[in-house]
Structure formats: C-alpha cells, structure tokens
Amino acid sequence: MPHLDTPADTPTGLPAAPPAAAPPRPAGAIPGPSSLTWRYAGDWRGVFAGRATLLMQVAHPVVGAGVADHSDFLNDRWGRLLRTMESTFAFLGYRGEERGRAETDRLREIHKGIKGVDAEGRRYHALNPEAYLWVHATLYHGMVETQRVFGRPLGPVKEAALFGEWRDLALALGITERHLPRSPAAFRAYFDGMVRDRLERNATVDLLIRLDREPLPPPPNWPLPKPLWTGLALPPGRALRKTGIATLPPVLRERFGLRWTSADQRGFDAFARAVRLAGAVTPEPLRYSPVALRAMRGARRAGGG
Questions:
Q1: Alpha carbons 216 and 220: distance in angstroms, whole number
Q2: 190 part of a folded domain
C-alpha cells in the first residue's frame, strides 16, 4: 500500500531530511549529511534491487562493451565489488566532500581510456554522454524504486528534492546540463525510453546472468572449507537473484530471456510486503548500511547534535 509522505518518515536520532524549503545547493554539489541521497542510497534494502541495477547498466551497448573489454571482474570478483562499493561511498559524500570531489574527478579520468570497437563493429567510448548519464540514472531509479517497492514511496516534495540532488551530483561527475532531464516526470520519460529503445541483451548481460546462477567464490583469506562457504552463500544468493529479476522492468526480463511466472510474482509480492512491514517496526538507524550510518553519526557528532 502507498504511504503518505509525512514527517513520520523522518529518521530518529539521525540528521533529518531537508525540509521543503531547503537552502539552495551550489551546482555540482556533493551530497552531505542533510541530503536525501545519504538517506536513500544508504538504505540497505537497496541490495534487493542491486542485480537489476547492474544488469540495466551493462545492457547499454557502450557500458556492456567497456566491461567486456576492460574489466577484470572475472578474475577478481571480490576486489572489483569492494572497489566499486568504496568508489560509490566516496562520490556520494560519505567520506567527506573533498574526498567526494576527488573521486568524481578520478572516475572521469579513468574512463577516458576506456574505448574500442564492440562485437557488432560499433566504436565506443566510456565517456559517451548517453552511456555516462545512463549509469548515473540507474542510481536515482534504484533509490526511488527501492522505496516504492520495499519502503515508503516518495511523495512529490521528496522526489523533487532527491532529483535535484541527483542532478547536482551528475554535474559534479562531469555530465553537462544539456544532457540532464529537468524534472522527475522528464526523467521517467527518459528512463522508459532508454529501457524500451536502447538497452540490449549482449554478451556482458548473458555473462552476468550466468554468474548470478552460481555462488560467489569465497572472499579472500576465507579460513574454512569452500563447501561451507557455498552452503552459506547459496540461499541469500538465490533470494537476491529472484529479487533482482523481480525489480527489472518486465520488458527487460523478456528481452534477457529470464523466466518469471505468476507464482514468482506472488512470492515476490509477499516478500516485499514482509520487508515493508518489518521496516515499519524497525528503528530507522538499523535500515542503513554500516558506512552510511557511521557517516551520519559522525556528521551529527561534528555538528554537536
């Protein structure tokens, strides 16, 4: 059931979400402690849509080709995962504004060298404006979708505020104003058009789908037998694969050849309802990832709150 966007949605004991009349931020601002970005990007329930986000990113032909030709994730899956998470924490501002700006500059610099010709003979470059924007777009979509499915859907005021922060972060990442949607409604039209007309099933999509059916290898220096890790990793891995398929746009499930039945949908609806009910009675600080929670508490202490 949809929830109204009320003050009851404000975290207890943590920096409050910005009010409707929040002071203007400079263009290209890195998110800070009072931002909705910190709150929603740090919500651990976003992990349920993580697989969908990754598949949507690599389904863009430029992103898929760049990953296929330039990424070492097959040989270093844990290292790649941890580096990606650390980079995300940094540019979202959880490590401080200065570190956030340094990370946006670093990301743009390393993408300059990611270019080539894909399997279809199409030339690509990672700084192609459409592709660079698309990866960032999946971040905003993921935050909004996580709240819609697993939490409290955002009301118009909060959605507009979060969208403004997303646009500012896009500018900090080097995406130009003329490429950005101007409103949440314009974003939805842009997003739906990209899903419908631009995303494709490619070799990287197929590889990630195949890998997602297998347990992640044990983390480095795992001290116990591999079968024990596999036994521990399989159940959550299967659950996250299901939630990832569920949170893909239906047209992409069909395009990627992912089977999804009415029974699957009923099971997912029950799961999402249980997550919403659990979230309603869980103290809000427990809904955040450890990195986000530490950043929020550190900012609160620094502010004397």
A1: 12
A2: yes
- Residues pairing with 123 in the sheet: 117
Q: What are residue 115's DSSP bridge partners?
A: 125
Helical segments of 213-261, H only:
226-246, 250-255
**Count of domains observed in the chain:** 1
Residue 264 counted as domain residue: yes
Predicted model pTM? 0.87
Q: Domain residues for 201?
A: 19-302
Measured distance CA(106)–CA(224) in Å, rounded: 37
Residues in the chain: 305
Cα–Cα distances in Å, from 138 out to 191, 195, 236, 262? 9, 11, 23, 26
pLDDT for 238-273, tens place per residue? 999 999 999 999 999 999 999 999 999 999 999 999
**183-204 tens-digit pLDDT:** 999 999 999 999 999 999 999 9
